[in-house]
Amino acid sequence: MCAWDVVNEAFNSDGTMRHTIWYDRPGISGSAGAGTSYIEQALKWARQADPNAKSFYNDYDAEEINQKSDAIYAMAADFKKRGVPLDGIGFQTHKSLKFDDPARLESFARNLERFAKLDYQLAITELDIRLSDSTPESLAAQAKLYREITRLCVQQPACKLIQTWGVSDQHSWIPQFYKRQGWALLWDANGQRKPAYFAVRDALAK
User: Fold this and answer.
1) Residue pLDDT tens, the chain, 206 long
2) Domains of the chain (ranges plus CATH)?
3) Is there a catalytic annotation at residue 137?
């Protein structure tokens, strides 16, 4: 195994810790309620279990600079300073077409850059872009946004991986969680490549 997603979705949108069995009592390692201590312990255990694998922290809605990504950044900076075995940060990147906004994309780029300056590997881990319909116009807009996000990763040397959350629309999680939305992946429900597939391919080839 080259990498592990050791801890996933530990922060609320306001940067506070989410209530989980790992954070709340009983917690782990006697550190219930003690900030990021349980994440630190999990990373140490992961390193002991697989010394050769990279250990990542992964979360959603932390692509832009906001309260959540600020909290993750503060944790990552603290861990780097103290030698906690965290190797990388994963950005899930579940998005709609609203994310195709210059200010949002620029914020994502600046966010990647600040984590890169801490000498972390970065990854886009669960990319999908949901739509409200599958018209040619929507599919073209989706392809454009897939291209822009892929370029952000390609242009950032610390970004080592980009992967989608699923392969085809036939098995996407989106329709079960977002009413009347779907069509989020690179292949359609019939296994045919969509414009987004070619957009990603072209962006990766630059």
Assistant:
1) 588 889 999 999 999 999 888 888 766 665 665 789 899 999 999 999 999 999 999 999 999 999 999 999 999 999 999 999 999 999 999 999 999 999 999 999 999 999 999 999 999 999 999 999 999 999 999 999 999 999 999 999 999 999 999 999 999 999 999 999 999 999 999 999 999 999 999 999 97
2) 8-205 (3.20.20.80)
3) no
Q: What is the pTM of this model?
A: 0.93
Q: Which of 40, 63, 64, 126 is catalytic?
A: 126
| Nearest to 146, CA basis, from 92, 90, 97 | 97
Amino acid identity for residue 58 in this structure: N
Distance CA 126, CA 166 (A): 8
Active site residue 9: yes
Would you give the DSSP letter of residue 21?
T
